[in-house]
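Input chain follows. Return C-alpha cells only.
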Amino acid sequence: NGTVFADGCLCGIWWEAGAAIAMIVTATVFLPRFFALGLTTTSGFLGERYDLTLRTMVSCIFMVYYAVVLCPLVLYTGALAVKDIFDLSVPLWVVSLVIGLLGAVYALTGGLKAVAVSDCLNGIGLIIAGFWVPIAAINALPNGLSTLFEDGSELLKPLVERSWTIEEDEVARAERVPSVPWHVNLTGLLLTNMYYWSTNQVIMQRVLAAESLSNGQKGVLFAAMMKVVGFALLCIPGIVGILLQAHGVTFEGEAFVVEKPDEVYSTLVKAVMPKWSLGFFAAVLLGSVLSTFNSALNSASTIFGLEIYKIYFNKEATDAKVIKVSTVFGVGLTLLSFVIAPQLVHVGTIFNFLQLMNSIISLPIVTVFFVGIAASLPDAFAGKVGFVVAFVTICAGQAIPDLQFLHLFFICFVLASSTIALFTYV
C-alpha cells in the first residue's frame, strides 16, 4: 500500500499477479523435484544437484538475509503500524521488542507446527479485516465507487511507464518512473517472484512439510488463487488514500493526511474503521506480523541446525540436540533483530528497500536453482562460477544510475547463466 501510494498508480499489482504465476511454476516444476528428493530445506536441492559447498553458500546467505534484513524489517513495520493505529507515545524500539518477544517465544517453543496453526487461524481474520478496510475506505469517498473509477481512472492503471509519484519529505507529486514500470514484467519481475515463491525457505518450508506432493501442490495453487484477488487488500487502499487526501475528506473534523507513504494503511485504518473494531484489527495485524517473523525465525533456525550444525559441527547429533542448538541460534537471531529494527526508521519506502535487498540476495540463488532445474549437464564448478558472477554483477550494477533494479536483475541473470553455459559447453 505504501508503494502504491508513492507510485500514484496501480503498477504494484504486478507483485501480486506475478506471484500467482510463480506459484503455478512452483507447483508444477519445483515441487515434484523437491519431493522426489525428500527435502526439508530448499538449499538441500543444491547439495543433491551440485555439491555441499554450494549448498552451504546458499544456506549462509539465507541465514544472513533473514537475520539482518527480513526479521528486523518485519518487527519495524509491525511496530510502526501498531504504534500509529493506537497513537502510542512509547518509543518504537519498545513496541518492536514486545512483538519480537511474543513471536520468538511462540516460534522457538512450538516449532513449525505452531507457526502453521497460527497462520491458519490468523488467515481467517486477515481476510475479514483485509477486505473490510478497502470497502470502508471506498464508502468514505464523496461518491463511493463512482469517485474511485471516475477521479481515480489514471491511478488505477496497472501498465504505465511514468506516473505522478511522491517521495518521502516531498509535499507535491512529480512525474517520474514508478517502482514497477510496465516493461519490467518482461524482464526481472518474474525471476524475482520465482526466487521468493519457489526457492525461499520461509515460503517453501510449509509446503515441504506437506503429507504428500498432491497436498503441497493444492496448497500452493490455493495460495496462487488468493494472490489473484490480493490486490484488493494490498493495493487498492493505497489508491483510495490518494483520493481521500485529494478530495480533502475529513474524519471527525480533521482532514485525511498521509505524512509518509509507509503510513498510508495505518492512517486509513484509524480514519475509516470504527473505534470498537481497532482491537480486532490490531490482533489480526499483529498476527500477520508474528506469522512472518515466526516463519523467518523458524527458517533461519532450521537452516542453521540442519545445514550448518549437523553437517559441519556434529554429524552424529540427535534430533533433540539439533532442535536445542537451533533454538539457541534463534534466540541470538531475535536479539540481533531487536538491535537492527529501530534503525530502519532511516530507510525510505520499506517495500522498495525490501525488493532492492531481495534482488541482491536472490539473484545468485535463483540462477543456480533455475539452471539446476532446467539443465542436467552444468556441474558444481560451473554453478559456483555462475553464483559468484551473479553476486558480483548485481552488486556492481547498483552503481549504474537510472537503471531500474529489475532490469539490472535480468541483465545480471543472463550474464550469470551465460557464464554457467560457457563453463559447461565450451
